[in-house]
Design brief:
Blueprint (H helix, E strand, L loop, with lengths): L14 H11 L26 E5 L4 E2 L13 E2 H4 L2 H14 L4 E5 L2 H4 L12 H10 L3 E5 L18 H15 L6 E3 L4 H10 L9 H26 L4 E2 L10 H7 L9 H13 L2 H4 L8 H8 L4 H9 L7 E4 L13 H22 L3 E6 L5 H20 L4 E6 L31 E5 L5 E5 L1 H12 L4
Parallel strand pairs: 1-4, 1-10, 4-5, 5-6, 6-7, 8-9, 9-10
Antiparallel strand pairs: 2-3, 11-12
Helix pairs in contact: 1-14, 1-15, 6-8, 7-8, 14-15, 15-16
Length: 466
């Protein structure tokens, strides 16, 4: 799919697109009923750039596999498979050449915490120091990008998961106090609850909506304790979430957990749907009161009223709500994709405006990309920026945009196949990179500069303050 072309690539950058976005922006924002608002919501202030132009280096890891438990699963550690552990300096230099101000980054928890209470910061200290002191780039640390240490049986569903995660976070924050201030407590908790609790793709391999609710509650508890730990340890901490909308259909949740909102007021239905789609974040951020329809649904699923009340009253909303969004714009080769791009813009606009309205926080496009070639990638990065610019003009606090990923990356399917790394590097979905990968004769995975990297650098240079 890499070499294909698309006709009329630039026609979206016309008055037609601007009109379509303006029309979308004129839609009324979703109302939040008084009884569903968080117990405490306040405006936040922080040290940082006016606008976070950023990049992401894919850092998924899933290490839980043994001969007894899922022997067919292979170790998925993107940093390892893509040779980033040894090529980190080169990769960070490539990011710096783009002019970015922030990089979403991580250290796999299973390596940094090889045994309970034992921590190894020997590797991560090098790129963090280089990023901050040499490149003057803000590291935004993903504390968990799906996986847990190998000694933690059942992964995010372990009884001690939340406290162990908080202990690890406290140790990390103390080790890098003064160097790291920006954190993402849990990358895409919605996807984590779905993959681990609903469809048995990740540990503990539960299935069904009961599993989804149980895993989500445990992930949410971890997010609460981790956010509390960060705010206790780092006085100028900036917490940036990375939320997505990968969850079961709200109607299925309504039926399974015996609540009825479909016949109720429109605002109650809309709130219930958004609470489900953003769970467990909606709960962690204080937006699910025990007496709400979704609160009752979780109680019917096995939670206690005291649990739901604890989340609501001890809410740990991030300083900035991050939205991960990948449009499907270029799935038909050889045709004019103008309509698809406009639809992608409208959906991005809707998600950002909805998050800003519901959570009452600044919002950040923490992940986005699209396109199978340079021209298509350039189209989407400009299109996404146009949405951000127009929303900001309307008074919506959109504070950043990250292209994801910096370089092509092994897809997660590697864990479940016998294919080589190179066979598992293919574009599409979230893997629309600015640098492609070439395998050298000695096995080195060379990062190849593309025209899309120049386009992103030029976009940043033209609009440094967003």
């Amino acid at each position: 799919m890499r070499g294909r072309t698309v006709s009329s690539r630039r026609t979206f950058i016309t008055g037609t697109t601007a009109t379509a976005i303006a029309a979308a922006l004129s839609m009324p924002a979703q109302a939040v009923p008084e009884d569903v608002q968080a117990s405490e919501q306040k405006e936040t202030t922080m040290e940082g750039p006016t606008f976070y132009w950023g990049i992401g280096i894919e850092n998924c890891w899933m290490a839980e596999h043994t001969e007894q438990n899922r022997p067919s699963k292979r170790l998925l550690d993107v940093y390892l498979l893509m040779q980033h552990y040894t090529m980190w300096r080169e990769d960070l230099d490539k990011a710096a050449e783009l002019g970015v101000k922030a990089i979403r980054y991580s250290v796999p928890w299973y390596r940094a915490n090889p045994r309970p209470g034992v921590y190894d910061w020997s590797w991560i200290s090098q790129p963090l120091d280089y990023m901050v002191h040499k490149l003057n780039i803000i590291p935004v640390i993903d504390l968990i990008h799906y996986g847990t240490p190998t000694w933690m049986e059942n992964g995010v569903f372990n009884n001690d998961y939340a406290q162990r995660f908080a202990d690890y976070t406290t140790a990390f924050a103390r080790q890098f106090r003064g160097l790291v201030t920006h954190y993402t407590p849990h990358n895409e908790p919605q996807l984590g609850a779905t993959y681990a609790g609903l469809n048995a793709y990740w540990p503990p391999y539960l299935t069904g909506l009961d599993g989804w609710a149980k895993v989500g509650l445990n992930i949410g508890k971890g997010m609460m304790l981790v956010s509390q730990a960060l705010r206790a340890e780092v006085k100028d901490a900036v917490l940036i979430s990375a939320d997505c909308l990968v969850n079961p259909a709200p109607a299925d949740v309504e039926d399974a957990f015996r609540v009825n909102v479909r016949n109720g007021p429109a605002d109650v239905r809309a709130t219930f749907e958004y609470q489900v789609l953003t769970f467990p974040s909606s709960m962690v951020y204080g937006m699910v009161p025990p007496h709400s329809a979704f609160g009752q649904a979780l109680i019917n699923a096995g939670a206690t009223e005291q649990q739901i009340a604890w989340f609501h009253h001890q809410a740990q909303a991030p300083d900035i709500v991050g939205c991960n969004y990948y449009p499907v714009c270029f799935d038909q080769p050889g045709v004019d994709n103008t309509t698809g791009v406009i639809q992608g813009q409208q959906e991005l606009q809707r998600r950002l405006q909805q998050a800003a309205t519901f959570f009452k926080r600044p919002v950040y496009v923490t992940e986005t990309s699209a396109g199978y070639n340079d021209a298509e990638k350039g189209i989407w990065m400009q299109a996404a920026y146009d949405v951000i610019r127009l929303l900001r003009a309307q008074g919506v606090a959109v504070v950043g945009m990250n292209w994801w990923p910096l370089f092509e990356t092994v897809q997660w399917a590697y864990r479940d196949t016998t294919k080589t790394v190179m066979e598992c590097i293919y574009p599409g979905g979230w893997n629309n990179a600015l640098f492609t990968i070439k395998e050298e004769f000695d096995g080195t995975l060379t990062r190849v500069h593309t025209g899309a990297a120049d386009m992103y650098r030029n976009l940043i240079a033209a609009h440094p303050q967003g």
